[in-house]
Amino acid sequence: MTDINLIAAVLFGLALVHTFATKTFERLADRYPRHAGLFHFFGEVEVVFGLWALVLILAMAMVSGGAQAIEYAETRTYTEPLFVFVIMVVAASKPVLESIRGLIAVLARLTPMRTALVRVWLGLALVPLIGSFITEPAAMTLAALMLGPQIFRQDQGMPEWLKYGALGVLFVNVSIGGTLTSFAAPPVLMVASTWNWDSTFMATHFGWKAAIAVLVNATAVSYVMRRHIKDDSGDAPLPARIPVWVSGLHLAFLAAVVAFAHHPVIFMGLFMFFIGFTKAYEQYQNPLILKEGLLVGFFLAGLVVLGGMQQWWLQSIVSGMEPTALFFGATALTAITDNAALTYLGSLIEGMSDQAKYMLVAGAVAGGGLTVIANAPNPAGVSLLRDGFNDESIGVGGLLLGALPPTIVAMLALFLL
To answer: DSSP assignment, residue 320?
Structure first.
């Protein structure tokens, strides 16, 4: 262990503490309006890891020299932050969003239950499972934008604790809902090629179990919220009909970005064409969520920089566990580190048994809803939904408590079935 490794571990710990304290900064902003801007800045959860990553680079420059600090920053892989930024913006575009909303509305009307309640259930169950095909960040974006007007509004009459319960279910379901294929969930993607796990393997070993847990979680929280879900939520008429060909092209852009998710040069090029298309036909658009997407990308890039220096202690913990202990340990560790980083470290360990491989990934995806940093799509959900909570911020403790019940359901499904 070198001095810079120890410094990086301390800074990573401080970043975690800062993440837990974001709601406190928002309250300080209300108490001290003269410095409200600064407190709001520190209260932005998306800023946390990018800020501490900058501190790490500066510390590395002082300890090891500027050249080595720049080399470290430049050798990190930023494909995931770039992809999440692009897929958030594309998936949140009005034609894509209204296409999915239309599908949800048709399915909801076909059921004998209250339409508004069924829409909530589908947003918490069907959309996370669709994430196995359109990727988890896209599913998170769509689900957050569809559920926001129905659940996550301060004037909706929904109790705060129920909002956290719904948020916990959304985060957990998105984390496990992407395991039907081998390319949609970041923690699965990190090991799929190394361990030769294709989509058939994922569907038969993980996917069906995860689908059961998703349905149980969505059903349970929808039942608890049923009295607070208003029948007229989300029924406002569209201001203008979107032509089928416009929606089709937007969906084609989404599919192309997903298809080239591991090639940033390609999907960034596609994104430039997408921006041009939305400008040319802006009468069918809402403002693109560029700010929210950039903040989430900044958060994940900071996590890449800080997380890259944690291998020395994380890998030693993972490699020293028996399969059963590894399952519970991976679930717990996911709460304090990105689950994709955790499974990537596991993929570097030689001689892991098939049972240990399963337990590592199962624990990592089961714990993907416990904190903001546990799963790459979570910051996107926080960015899009936080205005619906008190102080317009999401408390770490509230999220943890809200995510515990669905996490337990996911753990039981993946461990026992």
So the answer is: T
Residue 311 burial (10 A CB sphere; 0-12, 13-18, 19+): middle
Helix or strand run (H / E) with residue 18:
helix 3-20
CB 123 within 8 A of CB 104: yes
Q: From CA 45, how far away is CA 402, in angstroms rounded?
A: 18
Query: What is the distance between the alpha carbons of residues 56 and 11, in angstroms, rounded to a whole number?
Result: 7
pLDDT for 233 equals 45
Give the residue from 29, 57, 75 where a domain finishes: 75
**Same domain flag for 108 and 152:** yes
From the centroid of its chain, how far is CA 372? Answer: 8
Closest to 121 measured CA to CA, from 138, 133, 134, 107: 107
- Do 60 and 85 share a domain, yes or no? no
Same domain, 65 and 83: no
Last residue of a domain, one of 75, 98, 118: 75
- Taking a C-beta distance cutoff of 8 angstroms, is the pair 295, 81 a contact? no
pLDDT at 1: 56
Torsion of CA 283, 284, 286, 289, to 10 degrees: -120
Which has the closest alpha carbon to 301: 50, 57, 19?
50
53 and 131 part of one domain: no
Q: What is the pLDDT of residue 143?
A: 94
CA distance 286 to 198: 38
State pLDDT tens for residues 240-279: 688 999 999 999 999 999 999 889 999 999 999 999 999 9
State residue 240's pLDDT score.
Answer: 60
Rg of the chain (C-alpha set): 21
Residues 175 and 363 sit within 8 Å (Cβ to Cβ): no
The structural domain count of the chain equals 2
Please indicate, yes or no, whether residues 67 and 101 belong to a single structural domain of this protein. no
122 plus 265 within the same structural domain = yes
Residue 262 lies in domain: 79-416
- The list of the chain residues with pLDDT below 70 reads 1, 232-240
| Residues listed for the chain | 417
Cα(207)–Cα(391) distance, rounded to whole angstroms? 37
Q: What is the pLDDT of residues 121-173, one digit of tens each?
A: 999 999 999 999 989 999 999 999 999 988 998 777 889 999 999 999 999 99
Q: Determine the 3-state secondary structure of 97 from DSSP.
A: helix
Per-residue pLDDT, 235: 45
